[in-house]
Amino acid sequence: MAFKGLLSLLAVAVTLQVAKGAIIRKAVCPDGNTVNNAACCVLFPILEDIQESLFDGGECGEEVHESLRLTFHDAIGFSPSLNARGTFGGGGADGSISTFSEIETVFHANGGIDDIVEVQKPFVAKHNISAGDFIQFAGAVGVSNCVGAPRLEFLFGRPPAVAPSPDKLIPEPFDTVDDILVRFADAGFSPEEVVALLASHTVAASDHVDPSIPGTPFDSTPSKFDSQFFVETQLRGTIFPGTGGNQGEVESPLHGEIRLQSDHTLARDSRTACEWQSFVNNQAKLQNAFKASMAKLAVLGQNVDDLVDCSDVIPIPKPLNEAATFPAGLTHNDVEQACATTPFPTLATDPGPVTSVAPVPPS
Ligand code: HEM
C-alpha cells in the first residue's frame, strides 16, 4: 500500500514518456510548469522577471534588440586560430562581456553595448545564474516576443567566465566581406550561417553608427521577425537617414532606415547574395536557419555535454501572418539583383504614399 502511494506521488511529480524509443522524464515544477528536466524549473521565475521588468511586459522592443546583439557580442569572442597560436582566444558564450565588462565594453565594436550589460547585471546578481547563461537566456526569451520568430534553443549550465575575450574578434560594419567571412569561419560558421545569423538585423536598430538619429532601424518592421530586412537591403540605396558620411554606413532606400555597409556588401557578394535573397518571403527557411545558427552561437566555447537542454522554458512566439512587400513607392525596379541564378521574388508594393520608418522608441 505504502509502495503504491509512493508510486502515485512520483507519478504526480514525474511522468515517464516514451518518445522515439527514448525515455524522457517530465518534471512538474513547484509553480505548475512542466519541463523535460527538473533542473530547468529554476528558470521560470527568471523568465517571469525579465518579461516583466526587462522587456516591458513581453515587448519586442529596444531591450530585446539589445539583448539579442549581446548574445552575439559575448559569444563571438572565441577564436580557435588564436588558441592554436598559443594566445587565449576567448571563452565564447561565457558571459565574459559582463563579468569583465570594464575591459570588453570599451572595444570599438562594442559601442553602446555597455547599456544593456549594465541593465542586465542586477538580474544576474539577483537570480542564481551565470552571466553566460543569463545573456543567452535573455536573448532567447527576448526573441520569443517578436512575431514570426522561431523558438530558440536554450542550453543551461555555463560556468562563470575565467578571462576576458581579446579585442578585434567582433565584426565591424566597415569590414570587408572577406574579413567578415574569415572571422566567422574561424568561429565555425559557414557563409550561409553568417547570412542566417544576420536575420537578427530584422529586429534591430542603430544608436551609434549615426549618433544624431538614435533608434534608427535596419528595416521597416523592427518589432517583427520577418524577411523585410532581406528585401530592403537589396533595394537601391538613395538617402542617408541622418548626417551621412558615417563609418560603416551606406545609403538606404527609405527615410528613417539605416543601412550598414556590411549588410549591403553581404547582400551583393557572390558568396552570400543567393542565400540572402532566399530568405525573402520564406518564413520557414528564415526561422529554421536562424534557429540552427543561433543554437551554434549560443554554445560557442562551451562543452554541450555539461549543459541541460531547457529549450522548453522558452515561450513559443506568435506566427507571422503576412507576406513580404516592397515599401510604398518602391517596386521590383528598385531591386539591385545580386543573385546570379535565381530571380528576385515577385512582391506586392505597400499601398499609400511614401512614408518614413519610425525610430525604435527608448524605454
Ligand atoms: C557581420 C556581422 C555583424 C556586424 C558588422 C554587425 C554590426 C552591427 C552594428 C554596427 C549595429 C548597430 C549598433 C548601434 O549603432 O547601436 C548592430 C546592431 C545589432 N546587431 Fe549586429 N552586426 C553583425 C552581426 C550580428 C549578429 C550575428 C547578431 C545576432 C545574432 C546581431 C544582432 C544585432 C542586433 C539585434 C542589433 C540591434 C541592437 C539594438 O537595436 O539596440 N548582429 N549590428
UniProtKB/TrEMBL annotation:
One MF annotation (Gene Ontology) recorded for this entry: metal ion binding
Co-factor binding details: Binds 1 heme b (iron(II)-protoporphyrin IX) group per subunit. Binds 2 calcium ions per subunit.
Signal sequence interval, chain numbering: 1-21
Site (Transition state stabilizer): R69
Cysteine pairs bridged by disulfides in the record: C29-C41, C40-C310, C60-C146, C274-C339
UniProt key word Iron: yes
Binding-site positions, Ca(2+) 1: D74, G92, D94, S96
Plant heme peroxidase family profile domain sequence ranges: 68-343
Chain segments carrying region Disordered: 344-363
EC code: 1.11.1.-
Residues given in the record as Ca(2+) 2 binding sites: T202, D219, T221, D226
Binding site for heme b: H201
Necessary cofactors: heme b; Ca(2+)
Active-site feature positions: H73 (proton acceptor)
GO biological process: cellular response to oxidative stress; hydrogen peroxide catabolic process; lignin catabolic process; response to reactive oxygen species
Keyword annotations: Calcium, Disulfide bond, Glycoprotein, Heme, Iron, Lignin degradation, Metal-binding, Oxidoreductase, Peroxidase, Signal
InterPro entries the UniProt entry points to: Ccp1-like, Haem_peroxidase, Haem_peroxidase_sf, Ligninase, Ligninase_C, Peroxidases_AS, Peroxidases_heam-ligand_BS
SUPFAM superfamilies documented for this protein: Heme-dependent peroxidases (SSF48113)
PANTHER family found in the cross-reference section: CATALASE-PEROXIDASE, THYLAKOID LUMENAL 29 KDA PROTEIN, CHLOROPLASTIC-RELATED
Family to which the UniProt record says this protein belongs: Belongs to the peroxidase family. Ligninase subfamily.
This protein's name: Peroxidase
Taxonomic lineage: Eukaryota, Fungi, Dikarya, Basidiomycota, Agaricomycotina
